[in-house]
């Protein structure tokens, strides 16, 4: 379990050798689902590595992964794939993935697994949430799952401007079932914003110190 999580993290960071080996094993798995090269514990790492290299013009591995999803009857395997799809850095692919979550191919209770979105896909995911909010609210509005859409898509942002934008959008759309999560998510955005600002100030201070060190008295 720990090995799989570690390899997944390394793949997400784009480690070249890890990605190449993971993709090699994925291809072997696509050709032979019984291959010993891709143990279930490390499949998510391989799936993430695959999606890290997928683009709109190079999507064959994405299609292969979707085929694995469609052909398996194992719910945990479908979940593993869903958790990997949105790790792609290509916003166009991210949009396809998000729309796939709303399709009949994905059980409504499983859609939240696909909301682990790459940083490159955050803006497109936010636009997607706004464009599809009526449908999402109608489909998941009676339970707690709808809060996962908000927390997963809103919380990673890190600017006051985005927090204000979120507040403005939900000003006329909030309801008791999402109020708490919405408030917490917006608070998280403000916390992230303050953290980013502190990092920027530290960098500015480092530059000042470096410049002072170069002065000659």
Would you mind describing this structure in some detail?
The protein is mainly alpha-helical. It has eleven helices and no strands. The protein is globular. The model has no long low-confidence stretch (mean pLDDT 91).
Please tag this protein with its features.
217 residues, mainly alpha, 11 helices, 70% helix
Summarize the helices and strands and which ones pair or pack.
Blueprint: H1 2-12, H2 16-31, H3 40-52, H4 60-71, H5 75-85, H6 91-101, H7 122-131, H8 133-140, H9 145-154, H10 160-170, H11 176-214
Q: What would the principal axes of the Cα set say about the shape?
A: globular
Strand content: under 5%
Question: Sheet bearing the most strands, described?
Answer: none
Q: Unreliable runs, pLDDT <50, ≥5 residues?
A: none
Derived from helix and strand composition plus strand pairing, the structural class reads mainly alpha
Tally of strands: 0
The end-to-end distance, rounded to whole angstroms, is 59 Å
Question: What is shown here, in short?
Answer:
The protein has 217 residues and is an all-alpha fold. Helices cover 70% and strands 0% of the residues.
């Amino acid at each position: 379990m720990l090995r799989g999580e570690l390899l997944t993290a390394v793949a997400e960071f784009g480690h070249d050798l890890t990605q190449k080996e993971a993709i090699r094993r994925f291809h072997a798995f696509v050709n032979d689902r019984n291959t010993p090269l891709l143990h279930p514990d490390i499949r998510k790492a391989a799936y993430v590595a695959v999606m890290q290299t997928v683009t709109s013009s190079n999507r064959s591995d994405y299609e292969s992964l979707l085929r694995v999803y469609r052909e398996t009857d194992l719910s945990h395997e479908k979940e593993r794939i869903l958790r990997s799809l949105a790790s792609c850095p290509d916003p166009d692919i991210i949009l396809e993935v998000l729309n796939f979550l709303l399709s009949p191919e994905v059980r409504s209770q499983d859609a939240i697994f696909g909301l682990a979105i790459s940083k490159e896909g955050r803006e497109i995911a936010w636009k997607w949430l706004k464009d599809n909010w009526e449908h999402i609210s109608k489909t998941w509005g009676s339970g707690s799952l709808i809060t996962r859409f908000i927390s997963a898509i809103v919380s990673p942002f890190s600017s006051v401007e985005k927090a204000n934008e979120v507040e403005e959008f939900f000003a006329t759309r909030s309801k008791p079932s999402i109020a708490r999560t919405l408030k917490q998510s917006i608070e998280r955005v403000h916390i992230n914003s303050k953290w980013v600002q502190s990092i920027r100030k530290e960098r500015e201070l480092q530059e000042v110190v470096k410049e002072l060190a170069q002065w000659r008295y």
